[in-house]
Amino acid sequence: MSQVLTKLHIKTYGCQMNEYDSDKMVDVLRACENMVQTDKPEEADIILFNTCSIREKAEEKVFSDLGRARVLKQANPRLLIGVGGCVASQEGEAIIKRAPYVDVVFGPQTLHRLPQLIAARRESGKPQVDISFPEIEKFDHVPAAQTTHGTAFVSIMEGCSKYCTFCVVPYTRGEEMSRPYADVMREVESLIAQGVGEITLLGQNVNAYQGETDDGDTVDFAFLLQTVAALPGVQRLRYTTSHPREMSQRLIDLYATTPKLASHLHLPVQSGSDRILAAMKRGYTALEYKSIVRKLRAARPEISITSDFIVGFPGETDADFEATMKLIDDVAFDASFSFIFSARPGTPAAEMADDTPYETKLARLHRLQARIAELGQQVSEAMSGTVQRVVVENISRKSEHELAGRTANNRVVNFVGSPGMLGRYVDVRILSGTLHTLRGELVMEP
Ligand code: SAM
Ligand code: F3S
C-alpha cells in the first residue's frame, strides 16, 4: 500500500444503487491506497463522478460539473478525474472526446477495476476506458462491507432484463444477474457481526432474484428474505426496488408471517392507464396492480405503499392521466418519486410520437404530486399519539441534542436523546408530524 495520503472526493448522482456503488469505490480504493475522503473537491487528489443517465437533466448536470473539475485540474495538474456509473456506461470513449481532461471512465460493472485503471493512467499517461460487463466478477472483487450506522445495504443483484420501453437501465447496467446465495448470506452475517440491525436488500428488481446455491440449485427472493429474517441479529428487513410482475404469492404471504419485514413497500407502478402501461411494456394492468396491493394489505394491514410515476409518456391523454389519478386514490399511496417522461436515446419510447405540450405535462406532474402529498400527510397525522419503533440513524440536523430515527414506514422522527443511542432501536411516541418528518419523545429503550 502506498504511504502517500490520497484525498478522494466522490459526487454521486441518481439512485440508491449508485449510492451503494460509490461506497464500494471507496472500499476498493482504500484497499490499495492510503486514502481519506473529502467533501471539498478543491482539496482532492482524485475526483470521481458516479453518474446517472435515467433522465436527460441528470446527464447534462454531469457535464456542467465536469467543467468545474477541469478548472481545478488546471490549478493542480496531478488531479485525477474519473467518470463512472450509467453515463460512463452509455457514452464510453465519447466522454474523453467531449472532456479530454478526464483520466478514467468506468461502468457500474467495472468499478472494482478502478485501482488498475488509475495505475494504468499514471503509468501510460493516457486516459483509460473500461465499460465492459464482466458481470458477476464485480461482486467477487469488492472488499467486505463496513458500516457504523446500524443500517446497511446489501446488493443482491445487478442489472435489469425487463426492458420497459422508456428506460436505459438494461443498456447501462446490463441484464439481470443475481449474486450467489452464499455470498449474500456471508455479507449479511458479517454486517450483523458489526452491529447492524437493519438490512436493505438492494437491486433494480430484487424480487426477480434467482440465487445459485453452493450445490447448484437456485433459490428465489422469498426464500432469501425468509432466511435473512431468521438470523437472530436482524431486527428489521427492507428491500428495494421490486417489480409488480414478480410479486409472488409466497412473497406476499411473508408479510403475514415475518414481523421483521418492514411495513413499507416501494412498488413502482408508473401509470394507472392500461393503454400506457402496455406501451411502456410493464407487463401488468392497473387492476392487477390493485389486486397485489389488496393481497398485501390483507397480509399486513398497516403496510405503506410508495411508488414511481412517469407523467407525459408519449401519447398520454387527459383520460390516461385521470386513470393514474384514480389509481392514486384507490391505492392511497404514501409517497412517490414522480417524473416527467424524458426521451432517452436508444430506448423504444424515444421514437414514439409525443405531442403533449410540456406545460400540460408539468401541470399533470404538479397535480399528481399534490395529491400524493395530501395522502402522505394524512398518514403522518394518523401516526400522532402512536408509539413507533425506530432505528436511530443520525444526530438530528436541527439540533445536536436531538436524534433522527427511521420508522418502519420510512419516516424520519426527531426526538431528544443521547448520541449513545446511535444505531440502536428505541420506541418513540409520535407527537406531531408534517409530511415526512415527525416529532416524537423517547418512550423507552427496548
Ligand atoms: N426498478 C427501478 C427502481 O425503481 O430502482 C426502476 C428504474 S429507474 C432507476 C427509477 C425510476 O425512474 C423508474 O421507476 C421510473 O419512474 C423513472 N424513469 C426511468 N426512465 C425514465 C424516463 N425515461 N423518463 C422519466 N422517468 C424515468
Ligand atoms: Fe428500468 Fe423497467 Fe428495469 S423501469 S430498471 S427497465 S423494470
How would you sum up this structure, described in words?
Helix 1 (16-30) links the parallel strand 1 (5-12) and strand 2. 36% of the residues lie in helices and 24% in strands. The longest helix is centred in the C-terminal third of the chain and has 26 residues, at 358-383. It has helices at residues 16-30, 56-75, 85-91, 93-98, 114-124, 137-141, 169-172, 181-193, 221-229, 249-257, 274-280, 286-299, 318-331, 358-383, and strands at 5-12, 34-37, 46-51, 80-84, 104-106, 128-130, 151-155, 157-158, 177-178, 198-202, 210-212, 218-220, 236-240, 264-266, 304-311, 335-340, 387-395, 402-406, 412-416, 425-433, 437-444. The chain is globular and about 60 Å long. It has a six-stranded parallel sheet, sandwiched between helices. Strands 17-18-19-21-20 form a five-stranded mixed beta barrel. The mean pLDDT is 93. With 446 residues, it is of the alpha/beta class. The chain has 14 helices and 21 strands. The chain has three domains: 7-130, Methylthiotransferase, N-terminal domain (Rossmann fold, 3-Layer(aba) Sandwich); 151-382, Alpha-Beta Horseshoe (pyruvate-formate lyase- activating enzyme), CATH 3.80.30; 384-442, Nucleic acid-binding proteins (OB fold (Dihydrolipoamide Acetyltransferase, E2P), Beta Barrel). Helix 10 runs parallel beside helix 12 (286-299) and helix 13 runs parallel beside helix 14 (358-383). The two termini are 44 Å apart. FE3-S4 cluster binds at residues 160, 162-164, 167, 169-170, 204-205, 243.
